[in-house]
Amino acid sequence: MKVNLKNCYIVLNEPRYPENIGASARAIMNMGLGGLIVVNPYRFDMDAINKMATHEASSIVEEMKVYDDILEALAQFNYCVGTTARTGRGRRPTHTPRTIGPHVAPLSQENKIAFLFGSEKFGLSNQVLRLCQAIVTIPTADFSSLNLAQSVMIISYELFQTDLPQTVFTPQLANLRELEGMYEHLKEVFLEVGYINPENPDYFMQNFRKLFSRIQLRKKEVKMIRGFCRQLLWRINSLK
């Protein structure tokens, strides 16, 4: 089984240099991925973008979507893979570019997958990484800082190369908009019953995000959980 590359999209969050946007478009064209999404770019110079993309990748640039908000950009996706050079305490186990391909190959058959890259200066914040169901770190020697477009090419190449011997079916999952609605609903319930600390509820929700990321919820299952939350909140309010 190969990765369904047309369901895999590169998402650049707050890129600083238009040249990296153009070079990323070229990498997408080289490896046959589905497309490019740019969120809140620091400098958006179409001449510089097109120059680095070259004529061959002009179709990727023409079809590129630009958003102001990361949640809006990711709302359509069923699965999100974040990239980071930072590992350590409190962060989830990470994939390498070599292992992420086999991980997403079954998912990609019926689901749209975002591969999310942060800005050249700051990378992805913890807040944005919370939106991701999987994390990728590119191994390096002593110097872990990689050029943004180089990172895009490395990930894209490994997706292109993936070829699993077995056939595994993964059904369509809930998208990010549906998942975020569920997390907000759960947080409301947990706060209402005093289960999590109201001073920092998002921190305590991290364990539930990790749990449901492993389970890979479908749309129907998200609706079931939200229905339970609505009923529980109604019951609590009726007893007040």
Q: What oligomerization state is this entry in?
A: single chain
What is the domain total for the residues? 2
Q: What string gives the helices and strands in order?
A: EHEHHEHEHEHEHHHH
The overall pLDDT, averaged over residues, is: 91
- What is the name of the CATH topology of the largest domain? Alpha/beta knot
Number of helices: 10
Low-confidence stretches: none
Largest sheet: 6 strands, parallel
* Computed structural class: alpha/beta
Keywords, please?
240 residues, Helicase, Ruva Protein, domain 3, six-stranded parallel sheet, globular
What is shown here, in short?
The protein is of the alpha/beta class. The protein has helices at residues 18-31, 46-53, 58-63, 70-74, 97-108, 126-129, 148-161, 176-192, 201-215, 219-238; strands at residues 8-13, 35-39, 65-67, 79-83, 113-117, 134-136.
Give an overview of the whole structure.
This protein is an alpha/beta fold and 240 residues long. It has 2 domains: 5-161, Alpha/beta knot, CATH 3.40.1280; 176-238, Helicase, Ruva Protein, domain 3. It has 10 helices and 6 strands; from the N terminus they run E-H-E-H-H-E-H-E-H-E-H-E-H-H-H-H. Strand 1, helix 1 and strand 2 (35-39) form a beta-alpha-beta unit. Helix 1 (18-31) runs parallel beside helix 2, helix 1 (18-31) runs parallel beside helix 7 (148-161) and helix 5 (97-108) packs across helix 7. The radius of gyration is 19 Å and the shape is globular. The termini are far apart. Keywords: Cytoplasm, Methyltransferase, S-adenosyl-L-methionine, Transferase, tRNA processing. Residues 8-157 form the tRNA/rRNA methyltransferase SpoU type domain.
